[in-house]
Structure formats: structure tokens, C-alpha cells
Amino acid sequence: MFLRKVCREKDGKSHHYWILVESYRTARGPRHRTVAYLGEMDEAGRLGIRQAAQNRRSYQPSLLDEGAPEWVEVDLHGVHTERPRRFGDVWLAVELMKRLGLDEFFQEALGRRSMTTSWSAVVSILVAARFCEPRSELHVAEHFYSQSALADLYGIPDFAIYDNRLYRAMDKLLGQKDRLQVYLKERLGDLFQINYDLLLYDVTSTYFEGEAGRNPQAQRGYSRDHRPDCKQVLIALVVAREGLPLGYEVFEGNRHDSQTVAAIVEKIERLYGRAERIWIMDRGMGSAETLRLLSRDNRRYILGTPKSLLKKFDQELGRGGWREVHPGLEVKLCPSPFGNPQEVFILCRSTARQAKEKAIHDRFVRRLEAGFKRLEKSCRGGRVRGVTLVERRLGRLLERYQRAGRFFTTAVTEEKDGVRFAWARREEKLAWARRSEGCYVLRSNVQDWTPEDLWTAYIQLTDAEEAFRIEKDDLRLRPVWHQKEPRVQAHILVCFLAYVLWKCFGQMCRQAGLGDEPRKIIEEIKKLQLNDIVLPTRKGVDIRLRCVTMPDPDLATILHKLKLTPPKRLKINPHL
Predict the structure, then answer these.
(1) pTM of the prediction?
(2) Per residue in 122-133, pLDDT tens?
């Protein structure tokens, strides 16, 4: 249906009338018929009758929209708001995806349409939901989508978003994983002038709820989440400076960290080529195989080393030549103890780390000695009989305070008058622990850098650790409820994309002088809501406006610094 304007001359004057017309089909072609005569109508009346004239088949917006009234007589007693919806954070997620060009990438890669809607829009909804309220796909379909402004921003009605459609969109997205990582690397580099000369590599685990029997990657192994009772997968992540993501891979849950290095290095070089990059990895990666791999083909590396390697630098600890990086942190360049001229070793000493390790040692030694004295007293008093029982109690003590177990020798013997328990300190072990507290060693084949530069580059590995904290705590990567391997892979990919939005916004905050931690700012932007304001007019029709709440002065200042301008009003989509 649509409105038609009719002009009639009477008594030398022009009179304009409005009629509501319906278009219908006949065997001889389309025809129009009058539904109602509306008579003379001012602009406010035409605006109010809009809802009666629009339907899903035909709509004449130009006639109603042009010349919209600036002043309307409104019944103040009937003014009210309807359907308050969260707007700020979902609008921010959509804006970040536009800034990264993800909407265009999804349209090109996934195709524009499914049966009723766009796959690219559905994938964008999944990423926005993970960024704003990380919950299950079922929660997104049944609660989050209808309670947010995503329907208004993407033009997809509530009934078109359901769990199976979200799952199918995840499956389609998974096939674009490598292309997506390459695209994001280039896009982030262009936006924030990122130089991918340092590759920070680390591994974490995420556990499953359920058996995950149909997923061969779900295995039991060392759990960073302290859930050894659950199956898990490993997630290997490569980030650049400041935690900007470069790529990731998923491995079996029982694989050792060092066994992931070859696959990751091969993948990164296949996607991005062999450039002058420096690999930075923690001590868990530094196996002999890793060293052989990184030493070939002119690869460069900075690796952490096991604590046991520190014994080879016992004499260097007491010598001079230390250089201060900043107050409380000193470094020293040492030759290779293995006689390899291609490698350098960096001896590091931290005052804060020394105080922490000393407090840990003192506490465990004190508690273990107290346990030994109780056990010794029980044996002398005859309250504990049998060597087996004493050894069990001793085993429990050593397990509880295992950090101090190497500082003592123990002996359990059976004598005529009962069981005897004896213990003594190993002073040489304790003295070495005191000398080495707060010290650690790095190894590298980068010989044209100072020890300060090598340490500064290595310490940026904390950016990869922070990335895992964001994904697990803020974006709820864990636990994984999906059971099939492809669906688990797709879930991790959606979390990865949400993390990309997080880091993109963090860089925007940094450039605006607001720090690089966006949590508080996101909470402030969440205050923006979308409301339907209903204005009953004197003509008896309602004018409906879809308005965004105005930001308070502090939030307005933040948005101005971020160069973000939320809309004041959204157009009402007749199809929603």
C-alpha cells in the first residue's frame, strides 16, 4: 500500500487530498484500488500514517520522508518509551569490524545470501556477541540478539537468528581461517604501523565439559586451567609487539609444548614468507629439536632456558660486568658454556624476583621442618608403628612441600625399640638456591644486539600471556562445550576474532591517550541504549522514533578522543 496525493480545483483554490491505495495483480496486469480516503492531511498526519501505508511487499518512503515535520502537536500524557535494548557495546563491535574491513571480507569470502539472510551478517553477529557477551550460541539466539540492537544494525529479524543457523555460519567461517589471518595481519599493520619483526610464541590449554569422544584432538595432558580431570586441546598463539595477533593453531591436548614449534614455524613461514623475524619463546619450548630447527635457514631466536642451566654460570653470578636495564633489573652477556660461537647467553638478575623466590623458599623450608619435627616426635614416642606408615606420612609431607624437598635428606629405619626417623639439611643445596634466587638465563643467536635489547625483547613475551588471559577471562574461551573437532575449531576462531576486535580497540585507546586497557572504556560505552519513543499526536496517530540515549559529558569526551560518533537515531526497518 502507498499514499497518493490528489489535487482538485474548487472555487478558484487548489485543494489537496490523500488517499490510501493498494496495488494488486490481475490477469490483465497490476491494478490500483482505493482503500481509504484520508482527506486533507498535514505533514504530521502523513508521518503518523506511515505505519499503515508500509508492508513487506511495497513501501513508498520518499513520499512520507520528504518534508518531515519539525513541529508536531503531541499528547504529553501518552508519551512513552518501548523496547530498551543494549546499544553501546554492540555498536562499538560493529564499528570495529567496519574499521578492520571484516564486513567486506565476510561478504566476499562467504557469499552474500543464504536462503533468507546474509552469511556475512550472521558471522558478524557471532563475533559481536562474543565481544560483548561471551556465551553459547543458544544464548545468543534466544536472549542476547533480541535484547540488543544487532537486529536494528543488521536488519535481520529475531526469528531469522537461531542456533542451527549460527552453527552453520561457524562452519562456513572455519574454511576461511588462513585467508582471514593473512588479511588481518596486513590490515592491522596498515592501521597501526605494526612492524612484525618480533614473533612472540606461547601455548595454553582449554578444557572440555563432556567426553568429546568424537574429537581426536581432545586428550588429557598438563592443564594450565588446573583441570586435569577434563580433556583439553592446546592453543598455540603467535603475536607481534603489544599483543597484536598474527596467527594461531590448535593441537592435541597431550602434546608437549616443544612439539608444537615445528608446525607453527612452518605455518607462519608458509603464510607470510621467511622474513628477518626473531622468534621469542619461553623455556618450555627450548628442546634440542627446537634449537636445531631455529638454527637452520638463518632463523633468529631468543629463548628462555630451564632453571638447571643456571648452574653452568655459578662463577659468573659472583663476578662483575652487570649492566642495569632499569632499577632492580641487571643483565650480563656470557659466552656459550657449550662452546658454540653462534650463540650468546644473557644472565639476568631481578631484585623483585629474588625477594619473591626467597619468601617462597623460606616458607616451604619452615613448614617442611615443622612437619619433620612432628613426625620425628611421633616416632620417638611410639605413636607411629611400622616403617610403611612412617614412609607414607613422609611422602605426603614431601608432596605438599615439594619445592623444599631437595634441601633435605631423610631416612626411615626400623630398630628394636621401634621406627626411627632422621632428617638433615643439605646446606650446599640451600646455599646454591640462595645464590641463584632471582636469576635466570636467556639464550639467543642474535649477536648484533646489546644484552639490554635482548632482555627487553624477551620480556614482551608477557604480551602473549596477556592475550591468553583476555581470551579465557574476558572472552570466555573456556570451557569448550562443543564436541566435534570442526565445531571446536570454529569456536576458537570466533574467540580469536573477538580478541582481534579487543586489541584493535586497545590500540585506538592508546592512540587517543587513554591507555591500552579498554575494559573500563567498554563498560562506559555499554551505558548507551536504544529505545523506541512513541509520540501520540493530536491527529490520533502515533509517531515512533528509534533513538539512542545521549552520552553523559565524561563519555562524550571519551568518544570524541576516540573519534567515535554514535548515531542519535536509527531508521525504523519495516521488515523487523
Answers:
(1) 0.83
(2) 999 999 999 999
